[in-house]
Amino acid sequence: MRRRNFISATTGTTAAVIAPIIAQHSVGTSDVIRLRSGLDALMALDDTGGGHEGLARAALAGAAEALDKQKQGASQRVRLRLFSIAADYTATAAWSALDAKQTDRAQALLGRALYLAGMGQDPIAEMRVWNSYAMLAHQRREHIEAVDSGQAAQYTAITRRDPLFASLAHARTAIGHSNLNERQAALRSLGHAQEALEKAEFDQPRPSWVAFYGRAELTAITAIVRDRIGDSEQAEAASHKALKAIPKQFRRNRALATTRLALAQLHQRDIDQACSTASHAFELMNGDPIPGRMRSLLGDYYRDLITLAPDANVAREWGDRYRSEWSRA
Question: What is the mean pLDDT of the chain?
């Protein structure tokens, strides 16, 4: 019931944003602004609860409306902006599929989003899509493709103009290298990400989808990379630092970082502390359905837990909690 209510509430929120747009007959800047505000509303919902079917449907409705508007005699400048917005809405739907680990659907939507980004001549949307392609490849354990996608993100035009986007592209590439056990390449990419971020101006206007990225998120990514290459103590320290800095509204990201902290503790054989930390990830979601991406990470934690401490009481207790949370609708 909670899940149905949440989806209904999400769809209603989006309808409230998009419905006034449909009533407009002349196509111009006001349509662009209203459609963009609808996209921002969806991203705010994603920040708290993560991706889900209602959010994806609302995003695709926004993309369809943007494409319909661009056919209605708008100026070339407005038409390009509407293509760009359609790309962002479609990429948002793709991101929702990624968060739910619906990889085939995500791939199809990312291909569509990349096409629309090209039609809109929008290098930021293009960079967003390549960033998501890297995450898709990671979910499929296609780690060479993840590195290639991260590098494609690095070569988009926006990374030459805005070092924050360059930093994100390097950070995503670092994860790919770490999954290939390419230690030096991973650390080199992390270094490039840090150098670029130090040059970024954080008060510059940017799309809402990239609001998650900054020093805190790079620190969280550093924790992932460090744990993957065997530096569990450094990973734990980075996770603690990230959790102090990730804004409260990014609840899903805080829960993911908490699970990463638990993994780093587990890999140091601190079983009791790791289980306590991992349980806190459930509490952070506060009764909302757990997105597929987080379910997968918690599954990774449980597999490592029963491998390292199969007979520990705390491991059995955590396993009971895990199965209970997993079954929650």
Answer: 88
